[in-house]
Write a structure and sequence with these properties.
It is built from 13 helices and no strands. It is mostly helical. The protein has one domain. The chain is globular. The C terminus is likely disordered.
């Protein structure tokens, strides 16, 4: 829940900064600030940064970076609602991956919660391919958006496995270490010199992302892999609230209904009798 809140704050800052800066620069800022904070935090706590399962850590970093790249491509290739709905199919992939590779059981309560969360997301986003009225979607954009969902699911499942041996801060460090250099050439190609406000917003979104990544990684270490990402659907509720409070965006009945379904899914998950796992 704290991870979802932090990521919603990041989204607010991205929306504000996006008025003057290209997306690639925001992605780079996110990676650079997160990397700097990770290195500082690991040094202060005297945590060995390289971990023990280096192959797994690199794998998680690549999955996460690939998911981020695919998601941003999909947002540019598709309407935002459609790209978001397709990306947030990742809990379904997580449940399947966790069942196959992590041998986690999928109970009826979890299946219902995932279904309710998915329906809530569709109702909030109201994509054209479900509700009608939008132009046909490009096949490449849809494939890349589905790829972002699958890669995100692989990253979540990998975090779940790594949490058994790796510190959560080390997992976050590896992700930032790969994301920043990959974003650099795209940012340089579209560089715009930021205003003082722009610099502050880039710093702020990086800090919010670091908090979101840390809370998410810690949370995934404490709950089964399929449940953690599904709880993240509550970010839609936070985003709707920020829209009303800061951007004066009206909430429709559809949004309220969808938000209610998302909250219901979270309640179902949190009331599950399954025991949490141990973590670092």
């Amino acid at each position: 829940m704290l991870s979802a809140l932090a990521f919603s704050v990041m989204s607010v800052q991205v929306k504000l900064a996006g008025r003057e800066l290209p997306v690639a620069m925001l992605v780079l800022a996110r990676g650079v600030v997160t990397l700097a904070m990770s290195v500082t935090w690991l040094s202060v706590r005297r945590i060995h940064p390289w971990g023990t399962d280096k192959a797994g850590l690199v794998q998680r970093a690549l999955f996460g970076t690939g998911a981020l790249a695919c998601y941003f491509y999909a947002v540019n290739a598709l309407p935002l609602a459609e790209a978001t709905v397709l990306h947030y199919l990742n809990p379904v992939f997580v449940a399947i991956i966790a069942a196959i590779f992590l041998r986690e059981q999928i109970g009826a309560r979890l299946v219902i919660a995932i279904a309710v969360a998915l329906v809530g997301t569709v109702v909030v986003a109201r994509p054209g391919f479900v509700f009608g009225g939008a132009s046909p979607l490009g096949a490449v954009g849809v494939a890349v958006a589905m790829g972002s969902a699958l890669l995100s699911a692989c990253a979540y499942a990998t975090v779940r496995r790594l949490a058994r041996t790796e510190h959560s801060d080390v997992i976050v460090f590896y992700f930032a270490m790969f994301a920043a250099p990959i974003a650099l050439p795209f940012a340089l190609a579209s560089w715009v010199w930021p205003s003082p406000t722009g610099w502050l917003l880039m710093l702020g979104l990086g800090v919010a992302t670091q908090l979101g990544q840390t809370f998410m990684t810690r949370g995934l270490a404490l709950v089964p892999a399929a449940r953690g990402p599904t709880i993240g659907y509550v970010q839609i509720v936070f985003a709707a609230s920020w829209g009303v409070l800061l951007f004066h965006e009206a909430l429709s009945v559809w949004t309220l209904v969808g938000a209610g379904l998302v909250v219901l899914a979270v309640v179902l998950l949190l009331s599950s009798p399954e025991k949490p796992s141990s973590a670092h």
